[in-house]
Each structure stands twice: as structure tokens, then as C-alpha cells.
Design brief:
The protein has helices at 2-8, 19-24, 55-58, 62-66, 72-94, and strands spanning 46-48, 97-102, 114-118. By secondary structure, it is an alpha+beta fold.
Length: 120
């Protein structure tokens, strides 16, 4: 029985633990999810929720669409400036960074999340 439970942990067959939260650290149902969200007590990864606000989300408003939205160059410039700012701040605070991931997702549960794994 223990082998079976270990083999399904974090998969769709697991009816106790949320497989989406297990894979991504976020769940579309949030606190209303019927499954458990196992948060680690310790991690070397720093996760900051809803920190990067992409202009893509603003371009979905009717007013921005009427104005023609934003150019690819403007979007890239905005992202590059954010990336440089956050990278410098994190290096100053935590030291060298092994990996920095920024999630540009339109789903409310993942939008603007990013994670940082310091190189230690």
C-alpha cells in the first residue's frame, strides 16, 4: 500500500494532495481547493507572488485596444528594465543567483509570479 501511495503522490490519481500545486506552487482554486497544498517548511528558492505586472495585461483593456496596444519593442523594454532592477536587488541581498524565473501568465493564480534560486 505504501508503494502505491508513493507512486501516485503529486499526480492526478492522488485524491489528497493537489497535483497542480505540487508542480507549480500555485493552484487555480486557491484556498477553496478540495485537495491539500503542501507548502515546504524550508526552501532555497525565493518565491514572490504577483510582483511583475506585465503591460500585456493592460493591453487587454478596451481603451488600450482602441489605442492600438503596445509594440513588441515596448513590451521587451519594460521586461528588460524590470529584470535588471530585480536582478540587481536580489544579487545585492542574496549574492550570486543560479536561476531567476519570471512568469508572464494571464491566469490570475500565476500572473506576475517569479522565483529566484540563489547560487549557494
Amino acid at each position: 500500500m505504501a508503494e502505491f501511495l508513493a507512486s501516485i503522490f503529486g499526480t492526478e490519481k492522488d485524491r489528497v494532495n493537489c497535483p497542480f500545486y505540487f508542480k507549480t506552487g500555485a493552484c487555480t482554486h486557491g484556498e477553496r481547493c478540495s485537495r491539500q497544498h503542501n507548502r515546504p517548511t524550508y526552501s532555497q528558492t525565493v518565491l514572490l507572488n504577483h510582483m511583475y505586472r506585465s503591460p500585456v495585461n493592460l493591453s487587454l483593456t478596451p481603451e488600450m485596444q482602441r489605442l492600438g496596444g503596445l509594440t513588441e519593442e515596448a513590451l521587451q523594454k519594460h521586461f528588460d528594465e524590470f529584470f535588471e532592477d530585480i536582478y540587481v536587488e536580489l544579487v545585492d541581498k542574496y549574492g550570486p543567483i543560479e536561476e531567476l524565473n519570471i512568469c508572464e501568465n494571464l491566469g490570475d493564480h500565476l500572473v506576475a509570479d517569479f522565483s529566484c534560486h540563489p547560487d549557494r
